[in-house]
Amino acid sequence: MTTESKGSRALLWLVACGFFMQTLDGTIVNTALPGIAKNLQTSPLKMQSVVVAYLLTMAMIIPASGWISDKFGVRQVFIGALALFATGSLFCAFSQNLTQLVLSRILQGMGGALLLPVGRLALLRSVPHDQFLQAISFVATPGLLGPLIGPVLGGWLVEVASWHWIFLINIPVGIIGGIAASIYMKGDPEAESSSFDWTGYLLLAFGMVSVSLAMDAGYSLGLRRAGILLLMIFGLASIAGYWIHASRNPKPLFSPKIFSIPTLSIGLLGNLFSRLGSSSMPFLVPLFLQVNMGYSPFRAGLMLLPMAAAGIGIKRFAPFLIYKFGYRNVLATNTILIGFSMSSFFWLDSSDIWWLLSLQLFCFGAFNSLQFTAMNTFTLKDLEGNFTSSGNTILSMVQMLAMGMGVACGAAALEGFTDLFGKEPTNMLLSFKSTFVCMGLITLSSSFIFWQIKKEDGRSAVLKDSVLD
């Protein structure tokens, strides 16, 4: 084996580990939230900010990742991302209250947002084009294991050690990764970085943050209706201002012309509304199991295994189903199935029927994973030329934004039903069940978007790689 091939293989493993860290940390926290809340002396129903802050920060940083890489170099940015991620993890572990933990998660999210896009760019510049798809598939495999391992590992660490270790385990990985990156990642030749649309970026970022905080403001910021309304209006006005700015700027952050591609427009809107409901489940289910069912953190993590395993298993059949029935039928029908599978949690009670719960989670995991694969390939399949990179970036941004907003929506719905029914154990059970139905209906509403797909879309299209979802 030549030195160059050894370096390429080491780079593959390095980027794969970075992606694994990112996906692991997105799920490892979920089963630990009640334990963290108890230690920080706060309500477990207020812990959604820990998840939302991480995802929203990633959504903000992703649009700037390409410019940051060009400006400072891929190797330097990747090492810096690992350092930020590890430092944020250290601060998370030593947080003394919820505010400190949320701020630390923001720092952690800044590093996590750069790991995958910058790592993918490093592969693009180092791996021969005829081997790129194989390289990306290799890198994606550990990332698929993150959601499988994360909830179980998080629950186990909370029980055998303490919640601090779900963050401390990132530090040695970050240090080793930084050393490996300095050895195996090629330095970039000096080049002038392209201009960056800072005005558009700030308008879009402010809009995303404001709208997301408006959904999460009831508990996180303690705002009442007037404050929430102001946040929402300022956020929507900022997003509207971005589109006016982009239509007049010769080099906007995202060109409005890209939305003239029907598959991209429908796919992005479908992604947003579909994930608003389904993304709340990894947050709500562990909370439900521990608060209402009395499960330990480790057992709650084990109960999520069927959902993650089904999600991995269905990906093999996704291309066949799409070719057989077309994007329109698959997405519109599958969206309805996701909504019903989420709403089926209404029939759960406080008794321990673990096999029924496992079956429900298995079905939801399979439908949800099929949805992601179909949505992503449909969104990207007609992109060509200069639109390929920006379209992929917009999709990644919308995914993270929708996941964060989904958790915020789920927490807001749970808060509303709790205020309506009360906090007694029986009433809390009803609040959770009502929340599952509510979020299921939100997901189901996106089927109206997918019915707008033309029947012939996807019949002869070649599926692009979608394993990085």
Automatic annotation (TrEMBL):
It is a multi-pass membrane protein. InterPro entries: MFS (IPR011701), MFS_dom (IPR020846), MFS_trans_sf (IPR036259). The chain crosses the membrane at residues 50-68, 77-96, 102-123, 135-157, 163-184, 196-215, 227-246, 298-318, 330-347, 353-373, 394-414, 434-451. Its main location: membrane. SUPFAM superfamilies: MFS general substrate transporter. It holds the Pfam family MFS_1. Keywords: Cell membrane, Membrane, Transmembrane, Transmembrane helix, Transport. The keyword Transport applies. Residues 11-458 form the Major facilitator superfamily (MFS) profile domain. This is MFS transporter. It is found in: Cell membrane. GO terms for molecular function: transmembrane transporter activity. GO terms for cellular component: plasma membrane.
